[in-house]
Amino acid sequence: MRNSNTNNWRSTALVAGAILTAGVVTTTSTTDVHADNSQNNAQVSNDQVTYDQVRATTDQQLAQLQSANDSKEAQQATANEQSNAADLAQTNAQIDQLKASHAALEQEQAGAIAQAQASTAASIEAQTSAANAEYQQQINTQQQNEATQRAANDQQYAQAVNQAAENQQAVADINAQYQKALSDAANTQTSQAQAAANNYNSAVAKENDTYQGKLSAQQATNAENIKNAEASLASATANANKPYEVATTNDVAVTGRVAKPQTDVKVPAYVTKYGIHLEVRGYNGAIPVSDYTYPEFANTYYGEYPDSAVITNKAAESTPHDISEMPLDFQPGLLSYDAKNDHSEKVSADGLTADQVQVLRALALSWENGFRNNVFQNYREFYNVVNKNDGFVNVAPVDLVSTDFTDNIANQVVANRTKYNIDNNSHTVISSGMPAEATYTSVINDATKNLKKNLTSEFNGKTVYTDVNENLTTMQAGTPTLLNYAINLYNSMQGMYYGELVNPTHIGGHAVNLLCAGVRTVGIGFQKLTDEMTAKNGSGVSDRKNPSYAVTFDHVGFNIDYDANLTKEVQNRNVWGTSTVDAQLNTIKTAQYHVNKVPGTKTVTPTATDVQKATASEQQKLADVKAQAQQSLDALASAHQASLNKLAQQYNDAKAQVKANYDVAVTKAASVRDAALKATGVINLQAYKAQLDSAYQNLVKADQVAAQKLAADRDAKIANIKKVENVKLDAKINELVPSVDPQIKQLQDQHQAVIAHGDAVLAELKAENKAAYNKLAEQFNVQLAAIQRRENAKRANEVRLANNTVVLPSAVKVANDGNIDTVAFPTASNPLQAETTGRVQTVSAPSIVKTATQTPIAVAPVVTTVNHAAENTVKSNESSAPVVTQTTAVAATTNNGTQTSVASTADNKATKADNSEKSVVKAGTVAKKQTPAKKSESSQKVDQSSMSIVALAATALLGTLGITYSSKKRHN
User: Fold this and answer.
1) pTM
2) Mean pLDDT value of segment 166-193
3) CB atoms within 10 A of CB 421
């Protein structure tokens, strides 16, 4: 048993077995010298036969009706598929024809479409220019009105000034200076305005010349591009008419990422903290690393410790990121875990789901098989030592399987362990505190008793050995994900198996159990540990926030007389159940290795439809080139208009600046004049001037608001011009090349209607067939129920005594059910049926009816079970080596018929790792078959006592009838 206070898993190895001998007891019953005379008045009931006949007729007719219904439904489904396929082909052909016609018409009208596009662009440009001119005219009118108002104000103000100083020479001089300043300002304004106009006109002319140059170049480029596209289409059309290559596929293997175990792991911090040393314990002291035959096995022993987080030299290639990257083979070495790169599914606080358990079972099964095969192929000496007495030296083992059969065993073992509160440091055995019927050997014996019985009978004269054993480990996870649990279990199994392959004379019990070639199946159980179990000292559970599990490996198999050929033939039979992990393994295998289809080619002569499809891209390219040509022209026109707008804005800004300069000069002149007038003592005309200026400023503000609206109206008008012209263009193009989308939609809707009609017909047929089947089944069920009621009434007076049936007197006569016709009693064709289906009817007095035939059963062969580390053994000084124990169990018969049992073993107690010991299992010696032995005296007493109770009861009842009863026992 592996155990350490610092371990995050625990694993123990235990093999249990017992020598089984099979004997058959047969009992015969007689009444007198002529046994058959006691049955003269017995009549066999024919109700059961009637029931069987009606049952057979029911099954036959229902099967025939179901077959006929299935045939009709299949025919209807086939007819629907054929109709749908034909209609689909016709619909697709019509759609292809519409598309081809549309493409041809589009090609035919290409010139007209291009002309319409050019006309639209020209119309937009002309209307846009007109709108801009109209806007500019409105702005000019505003500015003229402002100038007129300003001149009028000046005149009015001058008049006021003149009137105020009409007779004053000083006022005249001041006004003369003022007028001269105004004249100079006006002249300056005129000169600057003319310069701005000249600059604007020159810039507009230059922009127009530039635009015309770009337009001519772009038109030439467009013409060249369209010419090239048309040539490419023509070339594509010619090429499309040539024979072409079509795709084929070839298989190409694709290999996914698989983590590789790391053998050079280092855990110095953990060793320092807990004083753990790399050595195998359990053989009367520690075995140093130097004793390992193969150094690569040594570091795998670190799988015993809590988790891969303590590994300081983690290798990226040894860190899987998902379940699909877990290795399926089982080479020596440990895996590392990286929570940040864990892409696997979560494990809830309630623990593993049933599906998650199956994934872990699949992986653990693959790893156990990987270990067995790798040891056989590459480390044969270990395998041969374990199997030296079993007939499998140098004979490859058969892979273990995990099936519904073994899942039931594993689930029952887990249920028993949970029921009796067995922790992760204890095996499923009596000494762990559970009754014998709950142990793993009892569970396995119950599950395999029929198979064992059949093999014993089949191999009469040979010894059938039963190989059963149990390995135990603990699984936990610091992060609640399926990948963390899987890595933890992988590393645990590395330490449990490779870590125990020290050298051929020092092999740990877990490795011995798994390398036993006689085992064929493994039931892998996951027992969720309670908080009480994980809190125990020595539980090894370091992280209790996530569920922890005791994982049991219960191996089962049979070895036929130490004959490898016979044993492997039995192992390869279909008697071990159906695999429950194939789907999980296949999912992982597919991710790690799968085949992709790589395209190839073959030559095909194209059809007209093929040509159309092949040139569709070039036709679209031509259409795109033409559209791009128009877009380029539109872009030039848009850029040209933007430039003109910018120049107009610059011109307006220049005029505004000229006006601003004029206003400053006028204001300054008025200021100078007013100052001069004030100096001469003339009255202050400021109020009058302010009144005039306010009126002028109000006009300017009103014009600014109006100018903003004029600009918005102009922009809206230009946008509407483009919209209207593009609508006209779309209408013109649609007139030249009408759309075929409505016709295609109509064809598709018609095809869906055909499919829906076929589905409705099939659904109606299925409903009718189901109703007819249910009606016929109900009719038969009524008849069968009536027969069963009558049979139950007749059986009410029957009593079974051992192998005999007694019919007691009854005052009530069972009436025949009028709903069922009586049928003739058939002759039994099956001998077993003749033995077990006898029935009696009520007679005037009780009588014993024997079964039809009693055939003596042949002596069964002795069954011997290999005991790899029996839990209760006796010490002996006959052990050949301190590290290998042998258990020999012999069942023999002495001359006087009493049975003796001899057993010799070396001390094989499982000890804990922190006491410097490790479990050891014997090299597997088994007693050969002896002379058939009588059952033990106590066993005989039990059998005879059971038969005596039956005999006494029968004798008391039958004595008054003059019938005698005797029992006989047969011994093997």
Assistant:
1) 0.43
2) 88
3) 13
